[in-house]
Amino acid sequence: IFKMKSDLLFDERQIQNIIKESNSQIVTVSREFFVLAKTGRRHEIDEMHDALEPFGILQFVRSGRIAVTKEAMPITELLDQEIV
């Protein structure tokens, strides 16, 4: 996730090209900043970071690997039980 100054989104054509070429998504746009989300392999994220860095990244966060289980986890059973 990348947070950048909003004026860059409208004033810098290169930013728009980076967003398009990297298949990233604009998540939020406000007067002060906009937020981009990029999924992919580490080197893809690093390439996008390198491309955006000269424009000034306000914040950058990696979420790491995220998984969703296919089956109910034991915690689900515990949550379904009444507390005695």
Helix and strand layout, with pairings?
Blueprint: E1 2-5, H1 6-11, H2 13-21, E2 25-29, E3 33-37, H3 42-52, E4 57-60, H4 74-80
What does this 3D model show about the protein?
- By secondary structure, the chain is an alpha+beta fold.
- 39% of the residues lie in helices and 21% in strands.
- It is built from 4 helices and 4 strands; from the N terminus they run βααββαβα.
- The chain has a 4-stranded antiparallel sheet with strand order 2-3-1-4.
- A hairpin with a 3-residue loop joins strand 2 and strand 3.
- The longest helix has 11 residues.
- The radius of gyration is 18 Å and the shape is elongated.
Explain briefly what this protein structure is.
The chain has 84 residues and is of the alpha+beta class. The protein has helices at residues 6-11, 13-21, 42-52, 74-80, and strands at residues 2-5, 25-29, 33-37, 57-60.
List its traits.
84 residues, 4 strands, 39% helix, 21% strand
Instruction: Assign the structural class, choosing from mainly alpha, mainly beta, alpha/beta, alpha+beta, or little secondary structure.
Output: alpha+beta
- Can you count the helices? 4
Strand order of the largest sheet: 2-3-1-4
What is the radius of gyration computed over CA atoms, rounded to a whole number of angstroms?
18 Å
Order of helices and strands: EHHEEHEH
Categorize the overall geometry. elongated
Could you tell me how far the N terminus lies from the C terminus, measured between alpha carbons in angstroms?
43 Å
Main β-sheet description: 4 strands, antiparallel
Roughly what fraction of the amino acids lie in strands? 15-25%
- Integer average pLDDT: 85
Strand element count: 4
Estimate the helix proportion, in percent: 25-40%
Low-confidence stretches: none
